[in-house]
Structure prediction request, 175 residues.
Amino acid sequence: MVKIKKAIFFDRDGTLIKNHTIKNNVPIAIRNLKDFRLINNSFLTLKKLSKRFLIIVITNQPDVSRGKNSKKNVIQINNKLKKKLPLIDIITSFSANNKNFMRKPNPGMIYLAKKKYKINLRLSYVVGDTCKDILAGKRVSCKTILINKSYNKNSYCNPDYKISNLKQILNIVKF
Prediction:
């Protein structure tokens, strides 16, 4: 019997890692390891979820193509995240072009993971702090969870669930 694989796709900055700063009510990703801080309850929540789900991070990192950060810094941050949390993969888009299929809200990173790990997307979730995360999930029929933040209170997307902290995911997902 083939085991059905399901995943939870997490955004990185603002979802698992605390944003460095917020400028004009827009979150800004951290740009180096010294600013690395995990969101509260991320390890324990993901550890529990990893017993039933593949845990994959999908992250836009357009500051690389904009010349505001280096690919080396992003990879160092991703590697530290892999050491701290039970992740099977981190898929990164370095594009700043919203038409790029790999950049959220487009679903390219999710489709890449689906193919690589043979994931049933209808049994999977996307968790994030922006509408780009939610729209990417909706485009592939995943259930979506938006983490409420000051910068997304007037969000135009329609997530399946809204939560105020990561631990609340455990009340939503089907084990």
Residues 22 and 28 are 6 Å apart (CA to CA). The longest strand covers residues 54-60. The chain has four helices and eight strands.
